Amino acid sequence: MGHLKYHLLLIASTIIIAGSFISAQALSAEITPASLALMRFCLAALILAPFIIFNPERRRTFIRILPKGLIISFFYATFFLLMFKALKTTTTLNTGTLYTLVPFLTAVASIFLFRDKIRPGTLLVYIISTIGTVWVISRGDVGILLHLKLNHGDALFLVGCLSMVGFSVSMKLLYKGEEMLVFVFTTLVAGAAWMAGALILSGEIPDYSGMDPEKFLHMLYLAVFATLLTSWIMQIATVKLSPRQVSAYIYLNPVFVAFISMLSSGQPLPVSVYPGIALSVLATVLLQVQAVKERRPVTA
After folding, report:
1. Taking the CB of residue 5, how many other CB atoms lie within 10 A of it?
2. CB burial readout 149-159, b (16+ within 10 A) else e
3. pTM of this prediction?
4. In angstroms, what CA-CA distances link 285 with 57, 125, 167, 271, 281?
5. Residue 174: HSE in the Cβ half-sphere, 13 Å Cα cutoff
6. What is the residue-wise DSSP string for 101-162?
7. 72 falls in which pLDDT band (50, 70, 90)?
């Protein structure tokens, strides 16, 4: 029960991320992927900047942990960049399906890095979670899954999924009790630096001329909520819980996307979707219980 608030924060974060798909879709036609990701990181960092710059102790901490931020944000920025690039040649169904691999891949990484163990029962829950999520993504239509074809974009996104695993485990390995506000700011600044570097190497010039007031509100949502707030939640939850527990909430993302789409469109969800939702929720809860049972103290 002592960690209940972190689980509630992760649920809130999952809802925010689900909502960000609407804003990202509204912006994707006007702004290139790297430019979009760069602006997200920059706006989020600018919001936190006064709290760091005008505090001498936080400034010193920022400089000291910047190398850590560069490592952690490399994985975080790479995921966003590859996701946007992948969506140019693949579909949300393909990426949504591949994204369900992240919790299992995180669990495998935790075996080697944190000496976690996966029991047969837990492996079964992962399978159930994946089935539930794919069920929701495909809206219970087997025909959609039968026509699922993997392409170059899917290969890019799979690398992005591995990068998200790297983000979770590097956060757990590198965080040593620093003030989380400074840690999040460092990650955002470093993420902006990585994205700027990617733009320079590609020769792409950021163009925000298509940003009207409505689109800027979408960008603020992505920067303040889907980047700044969710970064803080994921980082503090990863430290307090475990990478496996944090990544398990990925299975709820399609569930919240489905409900948000229902609310925004006014169209009810097909009845065929609800069994998948039930499986996803049940499996997420079971994964949390199993992660606590199987968790072992990390020794040097």
Report:
1. 11
2. eeeebbebbbe
3. 0.79
4. 40, 10, 23, 23, 6
5. 22
6. HHHHHHHHHHHHHH-----HHHHHHHHHHHHHHHHHHTTT-HHHHHT----HHHHHHHHHHH
7. very high
